[in-house]
Design brief:
The protein is α/β, with parallel strands linked by helices and 270 residues long. It is 40% helix and 14% strand. The protein has a domain of 185 residues: NADP-dependent oxidoreductase domain (TIM Barrel), CATH 3.20.20.100. The chain is built from 10 helices and 8 strands.
Length: 270
């Protein structure tokens, strides 16, 4: 697709494997999704590539994101690992490549892996480059290496229960794009009384309310689902407009509840 902006709405494929991810991607493309997010560590790039190839949707209409795993951050490993991802995804170029997590214990210096990522971009293997799970301090370091304008997005966990305000404010100040993952907090927000009340007032689902909340703040979202009806319903969150009162009520739900905090990988969070 190679647009100058990252699509606001995409399909996440975390934890989806085999035929399950093939069906999810196929159904998502069928109901109108045009952005697909995967990663080397998900172990499903080949299936995602198969589903895209079999969908009949032209590659130029799609925005495909993958993420480089920590084992492949070394300067001599990153580009070969991305080429392998391209082979699995059956494409000559992805639209966006992210560093999935900062190097644990800084085993690989950031200048080394971001330099290799920039080389991948210069070689035409990826249209855009960016990062994931980066804190304010890590973003400052990355900006010093690449320049703020070259970082297409920072993909981070952000939901009504984890609103990540200091990081989001910093990124807004820098004019940097934010992609929210786990916007539904593994489904935990779906039973929230405040979100349920707002959803009833709008004749919408609680998932649509949570996604619309993130979208209205300018974040991209990449929810996943294995059910066609949920995929279609989630997509309609783009048409839902929440009021200032709705947004203020959702702001009170922030409790710093993080779903993704893997030992040995997670940085010192903001």
């Amino acid at each position: 697709m190679n647009t100058t902006t990252i699509p606001a709405f995409g399909l996440g494929t975390f934890r989806l494997k085999g035929q399950v991810v093939i069906d999810s991607v196929r159904n998502a493309l069928d109901v109108g999704y045009r952005a697909i997010d995967t990663a080397q560590i998900y172990g499903n790039e080949a299936e995602v590539g198969q589903a895209i190839a079999e969908s009949g949707v032209p590659r130029r209409e799609l925005f495909v994101t993958t993420k480089v795993w920590t084992d492949h951050l070394a300067g001599d490993k990153l580009v070969p690992s991305l080429k392998e991802s391209l082979r699995k995804l059956r494409t000559e170029q992805v639209d966006l490549t992210l560093i999935h997590w900062p190097s644990p214990g800084n085993a690989v210096p950031m200048a080394e892996y971001l330099g290799a990522l920039a080389q991948a971009q210069d070689q035409g293997l990826t249209w855009g480059i960016g990062v994931s799970n980066f804190t304010v301090a890590l973003l400052r370091e990355a900006m010093g290496i690449l320049g703020a304008g070259r970082i297409a997005t920072n993909q981070v966990e952000l939901s009504p229960y984890l609103q990540n305000r200091s990081l989001a404010a910093f990124m807004r100040e820098q004019g940097m794009h934010l992609t929210s993952y786990m916007t539904l907090a593994y489904g935990k927000v779906l039973g929230d009384p405040v979100l349920q009340a707002i959803s009833q007032a709008h004749g919408a689902s609680t998932a649509q309310v949570a996604l619309a909340w993130a979208l209205q703040q300018g974040y991209a979202v990449i929810p996943s689902s294995t059910r066609r009806e949920n995929l279609a319903a989630n997509l309609k969150a783009q048409q839902l407009r929440l009021s200032e009162d709705d947004l203020a009520r959702i702001a009170t739900l922030d409790r710093g509840e993080r779903q993704a905090d893997p030992a040995g990988l997670a940085p010192a969070w903001d």
